[in-house]
Amino acid sequence: MKKTKLKQLFFIVLMLLTVAPVAVSAKQQIDVKNILLGHIKDSYDWHVTQIGKTPVVIHLPVIVKSSTGWHVFCSSQFSESKDANGNRPGPFGLYIKNSDSKVHPGKIVEMVHGQEVRPLDISITKTVCVLFIDAILLLICVLVPARWCRRHKWDDAAPKGFTGLMHMFVMSVYNDVIKSTMSDEETEKYGPWLMTCFFFVFLANIMGVVPFPPGGGNLTGNIACTFFLGITTFLITNVTGSKQYWKDIFWPKVPLWLKCPVPFMPFIELFGIFTKPLALIIRLFANMLAGHAIALSFAAMIFIMFNISENAVVNAAAGSGMTIVSIAMSIFMMLLEILVCYIQALVFTMLSAVFIHLAHVKPEPETAKA
Fold it and tell me: Any transmembrane segments, and where (predicted)?
């Protein structure tokens, strides 16, 4: 009886999802490009949804230093209507450049002596806002289990609920990834940083999958975020590298003709220093960006098929069929994206641990002379 009711409920929901796009498509055309870029790109306001013709937007603070001094105001002061060039005018002679422009697209600019100039911009954009939210959630995820550990002894019963889940993640990553890759001394020294990397990346990935605030921000799909994480690992790896590590780079154990007079191998080894963090940056950025774009593309295909021709019957048939396929594929992609969130955080942590460990190579012991 219960299974029959569940099937009926599922069928009703599926029919509603199938019919809903018809009403939407009949009213307006869907700009797929703006939907995709609006979710992926950074912005000065946070578009949540649209009820009828009224957009639901969270306006964020703008902090800029222009030619007339410092200005702090809300992004709502920028006009929603665009001028002839597609720009959004605002106060103090500032305006948001047309997002389709090749120079400063979607950024705040001003005209100074007839030239377009970018002011000093430290605004709380959507990406920055998501970063603050993820940082607060990360502190909660760390401090709640830490509080439990302070109040209990090591031989007490294992925690349950959220604390137990966090303990499982901590022990899994610490023992299976960090400790198995690095020495005991390195694990104690660099373990906190690597654990922070894992939980920050994993939390940012998961929050990007959540389609509504406080989620919905594609933080790790922003190259600036992954660039900072990769550069930090790069600095830790090379600043703390041993003498033998640098010796193997500038004077590797290869035949002399590969090192002198043309430093062929040293150049390759030195180039490899920069490709390692680049691999961390591009891998995380590309995977998360592509996952979000594919999931949104499946949803956008529904509205594309409802406007495929001028015949209403053809549109309804094509759109209804694509709705079922798109919903199924979107659910599959969301589940796959959750798995990718964990895998990418794990891969970033594991590769960072490997790079740091390889930088602490010790000289080989000299063989005893006969």
Answer: 130-149, 190-212, 219-236, 286-306, 312-332
> Reduced to 3 states, what is the DSSP secondary structure of residue 259?
coil
Q: Is 52 left (phi over 0), alpha (psi -120 to 50) or beta?
A: left
Nearest Cα residue to 197 out of 360, 359, 355, 39: 355
C-alpha atoms less than 13 angstroms from C-alpha of 79 in its C-beta half-sphere: 15
Contact (CB, 8 A) for 35 and 296:
yes
The distance of Cα 364 from the centroid of its chain, to the nearest Å, equals 41
pLDDT in tens, 246-272: 988 888 888 887 777 778 888 888 888
> Which one, of 281, 263, 280, 164, lies nearest residue 222 by Cα?
281
Q: Which of 15, 17, 14, 27 is nearest to 307 (CA)?
A: 27
Cβ neighbours for 144, distance < 8 A, ≥ 6 positions apart: 162, 163, 166
Give 63-88 pLDDT, tens digit per residue: 999 988 999 999 989 988 888 888 89
Q: Please report, as a single letter, which amino acid is at residue 131.
A: L
Phi, psi angle pair for 322, to nearest 5°: -70, -30
> What radius of gyration, in Å, describes the C-alpha atoms of the chain?
26
Pair of tokens at residue 289: 């960006």
- For the record, the structure tokens of 281 come out as 């940056």
Q: What is the dihedral of CA 327, 333, 338, 344, to 10 degrees?
A: -160
Backbone torsion region of residue 110, taken as left when φ is above 0, otherwise alpha when ψ lies between -120 and 50, otherwise beta: beta
Q: Which of 218, 220, 243 is nearest to 230 (CA)?
A: 220
Tens of pLDDT along 301-358? 777 777 776 667 766 777 777 788 888 887 888 888 888 999 999 999 999 999 999 9
Confirm if 326 and 298 have CB atoms less than 8 A apart: yes
| Phi, psi angles (nearest 5°) of residue 159 | -70, 160
Compute, in degrees rounded to 10, the torsion defined by CA atoms 53, 58, 64, 67.
Answer: 20
Residue 30's pLDDT is what? Answer: 63
